[in-house]
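for the writeup, i need someone to sanity check this before i put it in the appendix. the sequnce is what the collaborator sent (i think, or maybe the updated version? ugh). structure was predicted straight from it, no edits. if anything looks off just tell me and ill rerun, i have time this weekend
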Amino acid sequence: MSHTSARLRRGAVVAVAAGTLLVPLAGAPAGAVPASTPAVSAAPAVSAVSAADPPSPSPSGPDVRALTPAVARQLDAAVRNVMREANIPGVTVGIWTPDQGTYVGSFGVADKSNGRRMSSDLYSRIGSETKTFTVTALLQLVDQVRVGLDDPIGRYVAGVPNGDTITLRQLAGMRSGLFNYSEDDDFFKALTSDPQRSFTPQQLLDYSFRHPVLFQPGQKFSYSNTNLILLGLVVEKQSGQPLGDYIRQHVTDPAGMKHTLFPSGAEFPEPHAQGYTNQTADGKVADAADWNTSWGWAAGAMISTLDDLRVWARTVATGQFPDGRRMISEATQQQRLTTPATPIPGVGYGLGIFDVQGWIGHNGSLPGYESLTVYLPSAQATLVVLLNTDIDHDGQEPSTLVGEAVTKIVSPGHVFDLPAEPAAR
């Protein structure tokens, strides 16, 4: 699903199969790049190829090609090509393996107004990748026997439709049947008319609960940001801490992720790229860097960096902190990584995490930004992609276009080809 935190689009909403924050926005049709968007050519990539990192206990297998200078040149060319075709202002790509080398490349511009170059040290909004952190917090509480995955949400939050039968497991696995608040017309109008306004979790739930449930719990897969708002409230109630504080103390700090944060509003550390979106009230392209992301909260508000996401890819996929301590017990992690099939061929979705052709992780998209953080267990390889636009190209998300182009070269047996498909609205 890609995204964010929320992808706002009205009409042919593009719902990424595995984790997008969808917010119905008016404007250009899904996939259309408005003619007013200036073309931005890709800048020469700043690439690095090395094998300096200490090897993992077991070596990369044939599932990943060695990141030689020749392969780096192929990657540079592939990324530039996608940028030209999809009109992407700026992108950074990082690939790390235990013994096949490293590739880091930054292309294009971080700010179209002054030509400032994209670079690998920028903070970025990561949208729906936030879901992996919220669900991690929940699973830690499961390990502490403060909650049970098969507990009904009504035990913790009052007023939820079907709250006596929807379980925490179904919420985390996107099988609750609850309407996605970010697809509500009134929510869309409220956000796009005043992108700096704050939303409370209860206000977000109110937008969802005015709609009938889509199906009975467990019947099918349906990506909904509403599910994560509820899980965030469960974490707060059972831990006694604000969600952002809990995640920092129990997840990101122990992982050594000092540049990952859960903002309460529009705060955005420097340096960061400006973010370009057409999810606006008038459909025109705007810079969303100063938008308040409280509307995404537990489903999509977080901020991180390339280096921190490199750490997170392996940490969330294995349930183990970099120092060897368990973040999630092995038994609970196994439940997380049970990824039942979705309507998308080759894509499974577990507890706040997807499996796309063997790549484990999540993507994120919200106005102005997209990201992709995935780990390939068979090769112990990590891929992170950060972009400063969420404008679709021919119905495809830019993060998927970059991820697919890169993995066709690096892991041809495991191509990240998460498709977008029309949402039912």
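The first strand starts at residue 14 and ends at 16. The first helix runs from residue 69 to 86.
thx in advance!!
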